[in-house]
Amino acid sequence: MPRTTTALTLVLSAALTVSVTAAASAGAATSPTAGRGAVSPHEAPSAPVNLDGSGECTYPAKPIKGTPWSLQRILLDRLWQDTKGRDSTGRPVRVAVIDTGVDVKNPQLRGAVDAESGADLLTGMPEAAKDATTAGGANDGTGVRADAKDGPRAPAPGPSPSPSAGAKDRRKDKSTPSPGASPSPSAGDKNASGKPEKSPEPSPSKSPEKSPEKPPEKEPEKPKPDPTLDLVGHGTKVAGIIAARPSPGSGFVGIAPESVIIPIRQNDEKGTGTSRTLAQGIGLAVAAGARVINISQDTTKALRPDSDLELAVKDALEKDVVVVASAGNDGLGGEVKETYPAAYKGVLAVAASDRNNERASFSQPGEFVGVAAPGVEMVSTVPLGGQCVDNGTSFSAPYVAGVAALIRAKHPDWKQHQVVAQIEQTAERATNGHDRYIGWGVVDPVRALTEDAHPLDRVTPAGPQARTARAPDVAPLAVGESPQQRKERLATYVLGGAAVLVATIAGAAVVARDHRRRRGLSGPREL
User: Fold this and answer.
1) Is 234 annotated as catalytic?
2) Domain spans of the chain?
3) Strand ranges of the sheet holding 322-326, from the earlier edge strand across to the other edge
4) SS (HEC) of 295-358
5) How many whole angstroms separate alpha carbon 474 and alpha carbon 476?
6) pLDDT of res. 14
7) Mapped to the 3 state alphabet, what secondary structure does 370-394 carry?
8) Burial class (CB in 10 A: 0-12, 13-18, 19+), 7
9) Per the residue annotation, which of 99, 147, 150, 298 is the catalytic one?
10) Fewer CB atoms < 10 Å away: N or C end of the chain?
């Protein structure tokens, strides 16, 4: 039965008010004082997590046969002339997608996802995985949001969510089976409190205090962690843009179709993810061997310095992992603001561009934006099969993450900051510099993979060609006449005067001679 993420959005909106109150209360009540430090009183205890996509795709869907415009702008043969995502030894580059899960039932993602290396932070995380996280303290419970335009946006319920928050709406959703869910005796039969839905036991007429002999209810079986469970479809779309395998029935394919996805399920249609679980997801991705991490989520709420999320990002960068994050979709009003983790130093923040290589109207501007990439009418994979069209910076980020995977495959010795500099250096830009709307420009995958003779440590935009002009000959400043100069001047005068005198005398002699000749010719002759 087809499922639409629009319905999930309605569930999300219905639970919004209750969740905000519950999250704020839970965050305030559980702010720890141990670990790296207590949460600042000025820091929001919870914040919404945005999945920046339209959320209107129905799945399963029919294949889209044509080639998407975002791929038509690339000469794929040139892009893949050296690699499609494997290094020279044949090992695929591992790209972590920290999102809503990645459904492997879509044929284009079969063989593209390493589910065993993934994690499900919503259902549970093994102790070994907890030990692998580098920022796993309970220092901030700030929610994060995924960057899919007009997509589900809900506040995170905080570290101790209220069991009743949105319970009514969650029960409505139980009738639809979860695509990709592991078969379980209790799957789909649980209400918001985690107990199985069943008819109530006949109530005795005695008061509860007088019936202690009633046997306790059997605790329901807990669902198993499943990083391939994607109730939203968001993570499946993100993964497809990076690594979808070719399909004979569609013109869509991933930017790095031989790379491998590590799925980290950290968010859902209820906005359950927080900055803390996002930090844990980053740590798990690093531990699983990710060379690139894609985060199509953000929070605009203030995070204290050295929060779990910031420390996790720093750790990933120090361990030579490229971190790519969406800039966000709140740009319609033109307000410049920072979103996290995109605004953290070292993260490649990606804005959305349209068919004209201009900023998409919804794309969040800011000085932290590194590059832009197609984010309008983006085709990608959906759960259970097929493709759909969506919009948002959520789908711009994986476009760039795919390019980063190709660079890491071709140049495995390049450091993470050199990969970022290469992408920024080769981006298409109308002006020779950086701006807050598209950063260093719109990513050019082919240039990034072909104009790569040597690694760059930072962007070095070529300035306008300066004309090489000869320095002017400046006359010396006269400060007086030396004796030698005076002698030379006087000698010049004497010689000049003598020459004039000689010329005058010579001229006079010629005139006199001519005069005498004329008189002799005109006078009487003697006999």
Assistant:
1) yes
2) 3-166+222-450
3) 119-120, 260-265, 94-99, 292-295, 322-326, 348-353, 369-374
4) ECEEECCCCCCCCHHHHHHHHHHHCCCEEEEECCCCCCCCCCCCCECCCCCCCEEEEEECCCCC
5) 6
6) 34
7) EEEEECCCEEEECCCCCEEEECCCC
8) middle
9) 99
10) C
Place of tokens 């932070």: 121
Q: Could you tell me if 61 and 386 are in contact, meaning their C-beta atoms sit under 8 angstroms apart?
A: yes
Residue range 3-166+222-450 forms a domain whose CATH class is alpha beta
**Token couple for 110:** 């079969």
| Predicted pLDDT of residue 41 | 37
At residue 195 the predicted structure's pLDDT band, cuts being 50, 70 and 90, is very low
Residue with tokens 């004309």: 467
Query: Is 434 assigned a catalytic role?
Result: no
Q: Would residue 42 show up in a list of annotated catalytic residues for this protein?
A: no
Quick check: bond before 60 cis, omega within 30?
A: yes
Per-residue pLDDT tens over the stretch 468-523: 333 344 444 434 445 565 666 667 777 777 777 878 888 788 777 777 777 665 55
Q: Is the peptide bond before 248 cis (omega within 30 degrees of 0)?
A: no
Q: Which of 39-53, 218-232, 353-367, 453-467 has the lowest mean pLDDT?
A: 39-53
> Which residue of the set 31, 117, 394, 396 is catalytic?
394
Q: Of 46, 70, 234, 390, which is the active-site residue?
A: 234
pLDDT in tens, 411-460: 999 999 999 999 999 999 988 899 999 999 999 999 999 999 999 999 98
